[in-house]
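quick one before i forget lol
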Amino acid sequence: MTNKIQGIIIKTVKVKESQSQKRDDRFGVSDKIEAFIMELLKNDGDVQLKRNELASVFQCVPSQINYVISTRFSPERGYTVESRRGGGGYIRIRRIGTNDVLAEAIAQIGSFIDYASAKAIIEYAYSRGVVDELSAKLIIAAVSEKSIGADSKARANIVKNMLAVYGAENERG
């Protein structure tokens, strides 16, 4: 594990240097951290990081790493995050595979969901090719505040049922 972490830190420095040459100062540290993690995910679809070491490389506080991970690598955006605390702790981020998108989305919805989260899940399903553009727009319209008001329970049921139909259709071929 230590070799992997050292490799990530070395890679981080290279990525950081190349990003600073490509980007100007308009981009904040959160954008740089996100870009770095996205670059690592391109290779494997799975990355394991040490929060304190990553914070040290980007010269920020560890809570900045938490912020980026919680806001930009959420299930609604197609990622699962696992963390283990302590000296040997880590943060593992995994991109959800296309076959797992529907099952993961349905599992993440639960009994209630707000409009913004529902929209993010549907947009992610569209970006992964699970639903087509027209279907995504129709689902988003069906669960909007304009259509069903603030009924987050009905919204959750509608999104889960519509995604389940897509899952059944995808299994048939």
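fyi The domain at 2-95 is CATH 3.30.56.130 (Phenylalanyl-tRNA Synthetase; Chain B, domain 1).
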